[in-house]
Amino acid sequence: MKKDLLHTPEGVRDIYSTECVEKKIIENKLHDVCRLYGYNDIQTPSIEYFDVFSKERGSVPSNEMFKLFDRYGNTLVLRPDMTPSIARAAAKYFEDHILPIKLCYVSNTFINVSKYYQGRLKENTVIGAELIDDASIDADYEIICMVIDCMKNAGLTEFQVELGNVAYYNGLLKDAGIKGDTYEELLNLINEKNYIGVEEILTNLNIDKNTAKVLLELPQLFGQAEVLDKARSLTNIPECIEAVDRLTNLYELLKINGYDKYVSFDLGELSNHTYYTGIIFHAFTFGTGEPIASGGRYDKLLGQFFSERDMALLLDLASYSIVEESNVAQHYPDYAYNHPLYSSGMKIYSDASVSDFFKSITKDKSTGFLNEWNAKRNRRERIYISYDSTNKNCQAGEIELAEFGHAKTDIGSAIINYSVGYDLKNKEPLFYEAYPGSINDVSQLRTMLGKITGYGYKKIGFILDRGYFSRGNIRYLDECGYSFVIMAKGMSSFISDLILENKGTFENKRSCDMNAYGVYGKTVQRTLFEGDEKKRYIHIYHSISKDADEREHFENALRERTALLMSHQNETVEFGSAYEKYFYLHYDKDGVFLYPEEKTTVTEREISLCGYFVIITSERMTAKEALHLYKSRDVSEKLFASDKSFLGNKSMRSHTNEGVEGRIFTQFIALIIRNKIYTALQEENEKLEKKQNYMTVPAAIRELEKIEMTRQTDNVYRLDHAVTAKQKKILEAFGMNEGNITYRAGEISNTLKKSNIQKERR
What we know:
The chain has 762 residues and is of the alpha+beta class.
């Protein structure tokens, strides 16, 4: 027996002498690269709870883990995989940190495999790095570059890093409706390049023929960059196309610094770690059958460790603000009693709990969300951002942001200013800003322009209303390298002179007709002010309907002013600049008002400008293109213009700075959701022969609110009546029908029954 104790168990071994020294040297070289990339060390325990590596988290299979029990009967495991362990630690310790987070480690993992080959043991030393909460393509680029630099620093000269994207496979299987055991079985077969095995499974599945064909092709989709073109041509599934585009964009980045020579592609290269959701990689060199490095993107793993309660309550509060158009916490329980909830068991939280929740949303959390929200986009594509601002009165508490400024309602009250940036190309809000009430919108614009660089956008254009048209703002936009589209009617004599200079040159030309907008337009090039080094594209428009309306309005206003002036004849009275602009005001030597005399030159010039407006762009485009871009701003304006669509109510009621931050963040989430609803309704309305007035967000919600459930004597909730024709049409906008409502009603009824909620719900 003593002799047996001199040996190690199967699958583990001692490392000593020269081999141990060499191992440490390699470890240090790899670790040095991680540190140079800005990664900080972390060490997690070798023993973790079994659930950290559960099947739901896509880690190592249960039968490959070394299990043990603590004194309380909890199942523990020797750590089989580092990534879930790091995610667990990050969720616990770094939730309130400024993101992203960079961590690296040198640790051992333990896998209880029954057989091992080519040096694969049950205990292995792994060196790795985790870039947490950065969804950008730049993060993918950084990780791949770091892997290549690690290979080179270790002394390797001939190696390849194979890139794939799990999202391509997932997109195919989602389209085919394949999940569960079949998902994993196919994954393993494709990974093994087992064409016959894949074909056998697909033969027994009732799926789209083209999707089946692509799945059969997957094991063979490997090689150089041209394989990406082939992968793209095989399917039109959006998730798959997006996955290929991600790889293509990554490859273009790698080419910049010559890293592309170390890279190849394999769309059939998947991973047994099913927590991967995007780009994955495996590194190979000569003399090894197994990868010497591997990894990939996991976008959902970290969220598994955060509070489901908080995420559910956030969605419930956002829904509340959209449906009820309110942000008052004490009214939330009333809403909750009458609406389905995301919270577990449809639990209803008190107004005190809601207030505490708002306070828990720190600046770091909201900033982290905005960073991640913007990181998910292709920040190298050209986008145009609509930027809008407004304010809210603040009626309670000592709030730092609440200062006196230019209030839009209840003038004289302290206010909080906020603004929203809206991506017109992808039809989504990008970010929001809350800032002191004393800061005016124009000043904040420059601050925002500086901050947006931090989100990583490269090609940005801004669409701004006339309030932002100034020499200083245009110069600043130029300095930042941003293009712009700005409405400029009436902002300067230069604009009106330009209109009059071109008047009569385009208003009747069919080539200048923009029938869709009911206007005529032309484009000229000019510098805007002295010292302007760039010629801008100035687009001049005329609308016959606007001409008539504006002229009528001006004539009526002029008559009213004339009448008022005449009513004060022979009185000692003074009039303001609004009257002096259009009239010579005659007084006697004692200062008594005698009579007005119209300044006909001024009024005639004003009348001649009726119906005209100007848009200025920094980039070359036609008048039609410029107008289309500016009109696309209508979506964000309609979303933002309603006082109740962003923050609900006219005032903000909060007693703490933390509470204000939490409310504003929650309402931004509501804005994102509301925008999705708005876009879906608009797209569906465009399909109809006749546009319907109930296909707006408020009208659609009012209509859907009529769908009610009542509890009957058997304690089962059932729909009170059938779904109406209007409601069916609204539901179609979201890919739903009456069957979905009936099914959802059944689910709600079961949930309420299980939760023993006895109060009647709608």
